């Protein structure tokens, strides 16, 4: 399903990043960080319209030849980015939303851990395993 997942802090600093293929990690980092411009644009357009009850799921940020990049932003401005292979045409929008909800849930569980230091990168092995399960569709 997904080939890359990232969690970006409210100050646009990476908190977590993983890829299915570690050899392509640098290229995915560029794609994820460049998608933050689209996220900021969508967030700014939402606040200008005066509606504070915005949707957390931002949808498709942009589509490349081989990948589609989707975004999600929490109320605390934590950004989740998922990169999906374009050849996967059977993936529906509801399934992507579900992936983000699961990712948000395990992120919240990780942040609630008393040993987690706020605004630090996430280095938990169990968190990494849970994210990879979500990415693979398990």
User: Which CATH C-level class is it?
Assistant: Alpha Beta
N-to-C SSE string, H for helix and E for strand: EEHEEEHH
Rg:
14 Å
| Number of DSSP-assigned strands | 5
General shape = globular
Write the CATH architecture name: 2-Layer Sandwich
Count of alpha and pi helical runs: 3
Biggest pleated-sheet summary:
5 strands, antiparallel
Distance between the termini: 10 Å
According to CATH, the fold-level topology is Beta-Lactamase
**Tally of discrete structural domains:** 1
Unreliable stretches (pLDDT < 50, length at least 5) are: none
Structural class: alpha+beta
The main sheet orders its strands as: 2-1-5-4-3
Strand fraction? 15-25%
Q: Mean pLDDT, rounded to whole units?
A: 88
Which percent bin holds the helix content?
A: 25-40%
């Amino acid at each position: 399903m997904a080939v890359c997942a990232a969690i970006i802090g409210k100050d646009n600093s990476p908190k977590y990043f993983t890829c299915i293929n570690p050899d392509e990690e640098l290229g995915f980092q560029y794609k994820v960080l460049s998608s933050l411009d689209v996220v900021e644009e969508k967030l700014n357009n939402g606040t200008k319209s005066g509606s504070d009850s915005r949707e957390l799921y931002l949808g498709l940020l942009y589509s490349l030849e081989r990948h589609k990049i989707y975004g999600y932003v929490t109320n605390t401005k934590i950004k989740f980015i998922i990169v999906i292979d374009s050849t996967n045409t059977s993936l529906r929008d509801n399934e992507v939303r579900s992936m983000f909800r699961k990712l948000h849930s395990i992120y919240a569980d990780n942040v609630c851990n008393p040993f987690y230091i706020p605004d630090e990168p996430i280095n938990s092995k169990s968190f990494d395993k849970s994210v990879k399960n979500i990415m693979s569709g398990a």
